[in-house]
Specification:
The protein is α/β, with parallel strands linked by helices. The chain is built from eight helices and nine strands. Strands 2-7-1-8-9 form a five-stranded parallel beta sheet. A four-stranded mixed beta sheet has the order 4-3-6-5. Helix 5 packs antiparallel against helix 6.
Length: about 200
């Protein structure tokens, strides 16, 4: 399940609740990045913080499911970790931007269920970013500009959540996950058929 949306739209808050409820069934794909850690961020928990030359070698060797350059830094998803989690029967959750989504969808097609999370208005997004007090004025404007570009990609996603009510937004995301768990392609159909036939 792939989650995208502007920075400040509430993706992290919603995903934290989802993982609290479904922690044994989900695997959160931890992205790698070349940007510096923010205060409180831990290597291997929030991101894998790596050097630019190491990231570029990974691109050349095909080690990433997807990657993108955002705000002058690289971000990417490890292909190996994703494959291991899927083989273990877990639903992999990605929190990546629209550039990464386009690459991942090109590689995985209909195996990806995508959700775009945003605010109702641009001003609401700006207010939330201002409350975080984590960006300079230039960084804030850059994030708002990127958000406008991301909103132009809405039509490519399977689901849209306008996060203006946290409870309602969470219930919607939860319902999408439950529907994903029931998809035929996630089931061991031969085993289900064998059990069904034994019951005759």
């Amino acid at each position: 399940m792939l989650i995208s949306g502007p920075s400040g739209a509430g993706k992290s808050t919603l995903l934290a609740r989802l993982f609290e409820e479904f922690k044994d069934e989900l695997y959160f794909s931890i992205s790698s990045t070349t940007r510096k850690p923010r205060e409180g961020e831990i290597h291997g928990v929030h991101y894998h913080f790596i050097a630019k030359d190491e990231f570029e070698r990974g691109i050349e060797r095909g080690h990433f499911l997807e990657w993108a350059r955002v705000h002058e830094n690289y971000y990417g998803t490890s292909l190996r970790q994703t494959e291991e989690a899927l083989l273990g029967g877990r639903i992999v959750v990605f929190d990546i931007d629209v550039q990464g989504f386009n690459i991942a969808r090109g590689k995985m097609g209909e195996d990806i269920v995508s959700v775009f999370i945003t605010t109702k208005h641009r001003q609401e997004l700006k207010n939330r970013l201002l409350k975080r007090n984590a960006e300079t004025k230039g960084e804030l404007e850059k994030r708002l500009e990127n958000a406008r570009d991301e909103m132009g990609e809405l039509f490519k996603y399977d689901y849209l959540i306008i996060n203006d009510d946290l409870e309602r937004s969470y219930e919607t995301l939860r319902a999408i996950l439950i529907a994903q768990k029931c998809r035929v392609k996630r089931q061991n159909l031969k085993q289900i058929q064998a059990i069904w036939n034994k019951g005759e």
